[in-house]
């Protein structure tokens, strides 16, 4: 962790905080909610030690990234965030490399799907870990935003199955994969920014669907390996299993190479099973070098 470099990169009208480690082909790691670049710490160290350059930004509205107006959810559409990442790729990747590998989780997977849909010229291959990406990337009218009830300001509730629990006195029970040190890091950042920026991604969902209308029915045409935990909330709701198992997924993603369902693993699969996920990522991307 001490070897990870941190820098600020001006992109698309904001100042993006970026964590970076290693040399070689670039892997862009895209975090979800309520996460930061830090969620990829295990993957960054492993992939950097295996000849890759790991790049993990704080997305707009998160962590040490500044400049996005948190009071305006309309500035948090997938178009804005993809624009941030395209500018980041152009800023940190040599022209000779041009394309990057992409790994996304949760909202990071939503954005990763959108990046592949809008700018496949920037992506070598994608390894996402959320089927919920299908709900926004293709403009499908789904209920994700109503399910989480994040469209408008109000109390924040963590749905059951997301990986956390509360004791009888209401205090948060940490899962085994999240240490007090990890929680301290997240707390130090979210105490400064609050959750407004992250929640704005949900509040912009309807706008995403409207803006993505020209891509309705379009296919994602980059090589993809998909991984999800079998007890992940997003895998067990909203028709996700049927979409994966009955051909809808393969139709929308014709270069889908593999679907991995991890037994007994929940939503934060890259934190719950880092060694296993690291090996899946490494093996998949090796074939494109």
Description:
It is globular, with a radius of gyration of 18 Å. With 289 residues, it is an alpha/beta fold. The longest helix has 15 residues. The protein has one domain: Rossmann fold (3-Layer(aba) Sandwich). The strands form 3 sheets. A 6-stranded mixed sheet has the order 1-2-4-3-5-6, with helices on both faces. The protein has a two-stranded antiparallel sheet with strand order 7-8. A two-stranded parallel sheet has the order 9-10. The two termini are 26 Å apart. About 11% of the residues have low confidence.
Q: What's the number of helices?
A: 12
How many domains, in number, for the residues? Answer: 1
Q: What is the CATH superfamily?
A: Alpha/Beta hydrolase fold, catalytic domain
CATH class: Alpha Beta
Anisotropy-based shape: globular
Question: What's the architecture in CATH terms?
Answer: 3-Layer(aba) Sandwich
| Alpha-carbon Rg, integer | 18 Å
Helix content: 25-40%
Largest sheet, order of strands side by side? 1-2-4-3-5-6
Short description:
The chain is α/β, with parallel strands linked by helices and 289 residues long.
Which structural traits does this protein have?
10 strands, 289 residues, six-stranded mixed beta sheet, hydrolase activity, alpha/beta, Rossmann fold, hydrolase, two-stranded antiparallel ribbon, AB hydrolase-1 domain-containing protein
